[in-house]
């Protein structure tokens, strides 16, 4: 199995590192226009190969290094600067996608394409249109990372293991994203009915009020800004989220992941890429789950769709 | 961290093997009255240590080998014979528990006790009463295995990854167990509303009708009998389930697991050990989740409770 | 990736379990003439899939289940009985190999064949001749298990991590096997010069005298008998050793493993299968290392070769 | 188990990430004087917790966050700038060590201290003297990373799995370091006698001449400079190397690792910290292996020792 990562920046290099450490692929190829950078990252990661499952890392500033990949992850792009909204980055990045995608599809026509570059929903839409590949074969990391942030905060708040917090964020990877509270569960308890845990002395810990939920949802949206302010980029969690998605594809897992893909008649939403819980397997996005949503959630999702479609139109897509 | 496994039979040895392979504990101690058997198992597992995360296996027919364990797993007992119902084994096994528990508690007073020996709910109740330990510190593997069987069959039927099938079996580990369909979900879709996946050509696969659910529930109950008929014991899945529970304790995970523990006013059920989704952490069972159940499910659970209480009474517990 | 395991007995089923737990293959197929047994093992292992990396287990009494495997592991055979020497089993087992191999090669012509059934060296020789496949594509687990036993005992004796004990056993997997002491090292210290560790108080622990080495070598040879006496079969360590070999093949690792393969002019030894440290990769055995041996070691190896060649001849191979 | 990482820069944060992904510790605490930075790193890593083994990450600019650690890893310091020799950084860094160590020892008196900050050998010497802790409890990551670089290059050159390349670099982590060729092995073949692999067509690949060795040794020394030039820091491999050392301590592994520790009569070398293959366990460095060295190697090691001792003296240590 071969995974190529386009863009050897903070996100791309950490994603390669995480994927290798997790044994997600036998060969990881890094491609970047910056030859010195890509060589340095390949050396630094390669030196750690001894401590990983059997694997190989290669890299180049020649796109041929991506040839015959099973999965191509696109992280090339400009860093998001403190204060800059994700949608502001759109125009330049779409230009980049127009340059890169045809070259990639030429060397790796059968790969599944995972877009990570922001604004990821618009970038995914652009990549799909430009590549002409079947919808499903091109999708974005979407709100996998946001959902993982949500679950992390809920786990810390409730004291329940994060693996038992089943909650998704849908919509845009960005400011208009929507936590799907009404279908979320903790274990098999609806999240909105969670009453906390009663200790041996009768005290209750980890209750989750509506105010808590709102605060947590707000923290999810702001945390990316906070991280970028504090360290200039986000890379660790997105590296893991990306690796998880790669594993779902290469392992043909049929895994539910809130990735960003082309919607065509999903709860009345059309002609836009955004995230809804979807089944991911060897061919990419296999199916989108029709989630029962509250009126607010559905309204929010449609608003997110309209906003994203507007951006696409304004960029001539 | 030290885990002791009491009984080096099919279940005990495989559980030790699985726990070591998963890195669940630094030291695993096997204790069995059969000295030749325990020595053989320790040698056979020890010879594989090179291929595992750093660990150590020791064993003896002297209970002192369990001293100062963090977790003690009790698998000692008689094999379940083909045709024999789980409850038939009760009497002899409760006698065994009366002999072993005091000796174990003497050498490992602070351990969390995980009962696996069948009939596991009655054995757990007996172990709790005999040991005098706080409820929570003594619990049974319960329907963790049965739930894992259910999820496996649902995953195969629907084509969704088993990690996204959130369904629990509650009640007795045995013939009266109840699948909690009404609170089960696939991703965040209620299981009872699952409509299958629509492929690119419009065909739908993996629908799940009520008849499918009944057939699958039936298969879960009968599969243990089938395995015992075919190979004389069940050991592989229970080894993994046991290891998973150990990890929840040693990692203080706050993990939701349908283990068998003492109920005291749980949905009107008292003075019996049976399985409901519970939070497991370093101290053992921390909390039992109050699941919304359908009338049939609740009736079934109470019937299961009455049956188990009846057995306990008839054994003088 | 697909691995087939022929023979769902103690060794085959445990090997399948270990390989799945380690994520060594995406699909494991079990094939056994005993349909009830194979179905029971598949169910028992399948029920644990939830606790493993993404994988699938299938099984049948129809050899077609092995179709298009990447690796086929042959464990079919009779259990070794207490007291019975490994070579005694030869005749019946060679007959079995004659029946199975052509059918396997028909459905899985490109697979690498890993023989585990005992007497493994003779079985490997037979399988190679019968299949007509290139030498290298058919080899035996050989002394991988024995070397792992040796390292385990040396690690316990010296207090050094087993991963830093570099010692191989060569020759027959059986009574005439030879520990290659003269080339063994601990860290980068020749094993024969190991002086133990000096504690802070000046006391030395873990010295390794010639008498210690002899005792340990003897324990390795006798431990299989001891385990069979105590539990009727050996399965745990061999399951891990087999999984390790599979990983070396599927990961194209170039890993040094003392597997049993056809020697043709190796240190003057010809026309026999036995174990020497060899490089294993995607195509099977890629290269045999020319180890510097002491006179005793080389003499022992040749004696082992003569004994094995004799058995092969007496079986008409 | 608790591991604290002092300094949440490239190295510290990546090391925390790697340790969590590998399950090396239950709790990782990040401590940095830069509060915004440490908070951002903790958030970014925390958001990925869902994809890791059970673990927790905390962080603060208050040293109390390190309280009661089992291991403290010190990475605080200034980045090595392109062109700057490692020893040039010494003075400022020793000042930093003088400030930090007493505070750390106060809150975590029983921790094992792993120094990573460069110049690591001098920093280790300073930390040992300042802390007053027993030699063995304070040591440096030394040439673990350099040895891993060496093995990586040798593996690529020979085509043998890196796990079977047993070669250490000793001495200073820096320009005077010495590859211990004379005791290195590939599998059990002395590295200096490695003749490559013979393919089925008789061609030999992966020979290793003296010129190859020299070129590879040179590449190891220069690669750190190259990486820093290309990406401004090295973090991925050192994160894994650090995690490996932590695992050796927490797992009480008795693992051979070329860490930097205080030498007192080692092959005639005294009163200096530098790297030689050493046994690492729960208490830290347990024993230093007396390697058979060639005259050149021993001369080189002594020269390295003299250089390091000189630096220490010039810094008033
Ligand atoms: N979707 C998510 O969840 C998520 C999370 C974090 C970051 N991101 C996004 O990922 C992207 C990368 O972030 P980063 O921090 O790694 O940025 P970065 O600036 O560190 O790296 C970008 C890399 O892309 C390379 N590049 C630019 N043009 C290229 C081209 N034509 N071909 C190949 N490589 C090219 C650059 O040389 C650079 O190395 C950004 O768009 C960021 O917003 C997305
Ligand atoms: N709860 C579950 O999900 C589950 C699943 C499978 C099996 N089981 C149960 O696990 C138990 C063990 O099954 P098995 O197949 O391993 O049986 P087994 O007969 O192979 O092993 C039982 C072992 O217990 C030992 N033993 C007996 N008395 C002992 C004592 N006083 N002290 C120490 N050791 C003693 C025996 O020597 C034997 O080695 C059975 O009760 C079985 O029904 C439970
Ligand atoms: N090489 C080693 O290091 C090593 C170690 C342990 C065991 N072994 C050997 O492995 C073999 C298996 O041992 P076990 O304990 O699993 O024995 P077992 O008796 O438990 O299992 C053997 C299985 O092979 C099946 N079988 C028989 N004929 C078959 C055929 N024609 N096609 C398919 N399946 C067939 C049987 O039905 C049975 O299930 C033995 O030869 C044993 O000596 C080798
Ligand atoms: N030994 C090795 O193998 C190896 C390999 C790579 C890097 N390094 C060394 O590791 C060190 C760190 O490198 P980096 O790239 O992470 O640097 P960096 O500049 O990215 O990070 C250093 C961090 O230390 C913090 N810091 C400074 N003073 C502190 C104090 N008193 N208390 C707590 N935190 C403090 C800074 O705020 C900064 O976040 C350097 O000395 C580098 O040379 C060693």
From TrEMBL, chains A, B, C, D:
Record Gene3D superfamilies: Lactate dehydrogenase/glycoside hydrolase, family 4, C-terminal (3.90.110.10), NAD(P)-binding Rossmann-like Domain (3.40.50.720)
Assembly and interaction partners: Homotetramer.
Enzyme class: oxidoreductase
UniProt gene name: ldh
Keyword NAD: yes
Annotated positions binding beta-D-fructose 1,6-bisphosphate: 151, 166
Annotated CDD domains: LDH_2
Annotated GO MF terms: L-lactate dehydrogenase (NAD+) activity
Organism: Actinotalea fermentans
Name of the protein described by the UniProt record: L-lactate dehydrogenase
């Amino acid at each position: 199995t071969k995974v190529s990562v386009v863009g050897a920046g903070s996100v791309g290099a950490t994603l390669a590192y995480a994927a290798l450490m997790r044994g997600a692929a036998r060969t990881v190829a890094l491609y970047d226009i910056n030859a010195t950078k890509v060589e340095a990252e390949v050396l630094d990661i390669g030196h750690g190969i001894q401590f990983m499952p059997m694997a190989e890392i290669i890299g180049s500033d020649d796109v041929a290094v991506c040839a015959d990949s099973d999965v191509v992850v696109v992280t090339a792009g400009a860093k998001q600067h403190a204060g800059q909204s994700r949608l502001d980055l759109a125009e330049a990045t779409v230009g980049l996608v127009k340059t890169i995608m045809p070259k990639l599809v030429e060397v790796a026509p059968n790969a599944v394409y995972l877009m990570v570059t922001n604004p990821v929903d618009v970038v995914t839409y652009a990549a799909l249109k430009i590549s002409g590949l079947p919808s499903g074969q091109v999708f974005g990391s979407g709100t996998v990372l946001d959902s993982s942030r949500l679950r992390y905060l809920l786990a810390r708040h409730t004291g329940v293991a994060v693996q038992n917090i089943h909650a998704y964020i849908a919509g845009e990877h960005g400011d208009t994203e929507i936590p799907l509270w009404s279908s979320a569960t903790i274990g098999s308890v609806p999240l909105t009915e969670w009453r906390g845990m009663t200790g041996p002395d009768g005290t209750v810990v980890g209750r989750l009020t509506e105010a808590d939920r709102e605060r947590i949802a707000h923290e999810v949206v702001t945390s990316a800004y906070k991280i970028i302010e504090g360290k200039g980029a986000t890379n660790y969690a997105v590296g893991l989220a990306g690796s998880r998605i790669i594993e779902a594809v290469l392992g043909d897992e049929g895994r539910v992941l809130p990735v960003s893909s082309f919607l065509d008649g999903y709860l009345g939403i059309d002609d836009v890429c955004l995230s809804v819980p979807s089944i991911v397997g060897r061919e990419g996005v296999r199916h989108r789950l029709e989630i029962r949503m509250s009126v607010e959630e559905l309204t929010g999702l449609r608003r997110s769709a309209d906003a994203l479609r507007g951006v696409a139109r304004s960029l001539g897509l």
